[in-house]
Amino acid sequence: MTDFNRSVLPDAVRSNGATPNPWWANAVVYQIYPRSFQDTNGDGIGDLKGITSRLDYLADLGVDVLWLSPVYRSPQDDNGYDISDYQDIDPLFGTLEDMDELLAEAHRRGLKIVMDLVVNHTSDEHAWFQASRDRDDPHADWYWWRPARPGHEPGTPGAEPNRWGSYFGGSAWQYDPKRGEYYLHQFSRKQPDLNWENPEVRKAVYRMMNWWMDRGIDGFRMDVITLISKHLDSHGRLPGEVDSELSEGEIGEEGYTNASPFCSDGPRLDEFLAEMRREVFEGREGYMNVGEAPGITPERNEFITNPAHKELDMLFLFDHVSIDQSPESKWDTHAFVPKKLQDRMSRQQEAVRNAGWASLFFCNHDQPRVVSRWGNDSDRESRELSAKAFGMLLHMHRGTPYIYEGEELGMTNAHFTELGQYRDLEAINAYRQRVEEARCQSPESMMAALALIGRDNSRTPMQWDASRYAGFTPADAATEPWIGVNPNHVEINAAEEFDDPDSVYGFYKKLIAMRHDNATVATGEWNLVAADSEQVYAFTRTSGDDTILVVVNLTDRSAGLPGEVAELLGDGVAESQILLSTYDVAHGVKSIARGELARWEGVVIQL
């Protein structure tokens, strides 16, 4: 078990309801997107040796856990989230020996490694799927195979088993001539869904997970794990199938029905997660398991992460990162409204007040850069202030914070202007589906949406320095990076910020240290203040007699101090009470005294 250089929370402090408190209750996780983190062989794609070479940087930052996006063998249709061999490393990233070296070097520095795991689906090139194409093979029922609709020629429009659409555009069904049937894929056609109703599928998944745990990893972040249980009628039919007792709903603007209500948080989800816990994690120490949770409400998060139910330690909820998107389509975007963020995050915090735990994030490999999405990246001062404001807001909540690579530098969206600059399958397919086929969105509107929330915004190379390829790959490399480097790497990079205590990087180091050393920040009770404020998000964190007030102006203009906040502060605050400020201590004291926060001003105050 890895030892940490940080405080251990006393058992008198309650975290998620477990006794003793789990080791991760005051930890901070750092997500690495391996293909964009560090390239050591000049092929334009990051690798495991590159991650190992940057471990000292991560140890200096102070994080505790490294979450790696998939590095398994894969055709890379969806950048590794289409796995063809769970027990091997893709040559793009290195070898199993490179993985063992990374584990050893990380553990030597007190860092844990959590691997991304995709078991809702595999690649269509996985041996399991290839075997399932034969109806007489033992794997024949390992995926969701269905015949064509009666009266339709298989493989032609309208012959699909139901009218579900894929998250990546088009039908969620793909016809396979060899088997003579369709298979379900909620994502790419090269990502067929596994049939978790089959106990042999589950046994195979657990064997593979145990193989990795025995090899020394410290847990898993499980991709779309809440989609593994599908809603079926009493005869095992999916909604919308011929003679199914379940309706599949209305057809949307892209020409398909929505599978999400029938594949998210299905009737056997709790059973499957509890079984996984028993078969993989029971009896082990020092691990964490985190699930990506589309379709899960904050209230269900409480149940699943309550240690008494023995399912998962944490879940990633998405209700707060959809506040600027239409319910009908993520590509129909709207302006950021701070009050909406406050409402969603408040609900998440309230749901785990008595049991369970929250995952805290704004950015990851599927989300754009928060400083561009909700902040202001138009100039250096605005970018740094808004990056600090959102960092403070997130890290002062109750739960486990997740930092996505480059977030600690204030990295911005890519600001691509042409479709050819994008590499993401979702983005390219969505443009074709919405603009060229369904014609439900204009090219200009779609390009604006991609520039704001497209996934490639977070996937440009990590900005290490001001050199030609940002230090991600050698400046004289014969091969360019797999995706364009953000031109602003000349101003925004680790080398520029590393030794500057006033930089975004320096600010994140302070946030992480507070999480480690202050039990009130890590686990204290959370209470919203000034619920009606349109600009200021304020809350307290309380542990026993200790109370901390967090006040953040989430707008690009000054904001009056809400009356409820002023009442808590009484006659004002002294410099000694300011624990952290997005400006500086003196500025925070003056702002409180005049009752007005400057743009993007955030202050953490000891009451």
TrEMBL record:
Specify the Glycosyl hydrolase family 13 catalytic domain's residue ranges.
Answer: 31-459
A Pfam family name for this chain? Answer: Alpha-amylase
InterPro entries recorded = GH, GH13_cat_dom, Glyco_hydro_b, O16G_dom_2
**Transmembrane residues, as ranges?**
none
Write down the superkingdom of origin: Bacteria
Recorded hits in PANTHER family, A to Z, give: ALPHA-AMYLASE FAMILY MEMBER, NEUTRAL AND BASIC AMINO ACID TRANSPORT PROTEIN RBAT
Protein family: Belongs to the glycosyl hydrolase 13 family.
Query: Which NCBIfam families is this protein grouped with?
Result: PRK10933.1
| Protein name, UniProt field | Oligo-1,6-glucosidase
Which species is listed as the source? Bifidobacterium catenulatum DSM 16992 = JCM 1194 = LMG 11043
